[in-house]
Amino acid sequence: MESKKSSAVENGVIMWNFLLKELDNGVLVQIFKHLDIFESTSAIQRFTEALTKASTVQPVWETLDFSMLKSEFVKTPSEPFVWVNSGSDNTLYNLLFGALKLSQGKIKTLIFHYNLYLTNDQFIHMAVRYVIIYNF
């Protein structure tokens, strides 16, 4: 009985460490806002188990589809030719890096909408972090 309790506590600690390390604080705050004090322990446990399973399953992270996202932008006649709203850019930044962090390098395909403008920093981060070498 003692070993079952200690392994359950150890699993809970591992899940909490994973949750706190992988998720943004804003996401955690939104989750906790919707939990009742009486259901919080079981709901948090179910949530962390589901998140851990989802983040370790290979097929879930093979393709990230951002085709529904569009940047709020204004075309200009001179350089830089497109001006992107900073709020739109920050939203994309947070979604992209959050997804890349949770995927743990398992991504094979990224899909973007043609009206989604990425910054050089976002491209460089993806290229450095997720290098896949193909031999043709």
From TrEMBL:
| Protein name per its UniProtKB record | F-box domain-containing protein
Source organism's superkingdom? Eukaryota
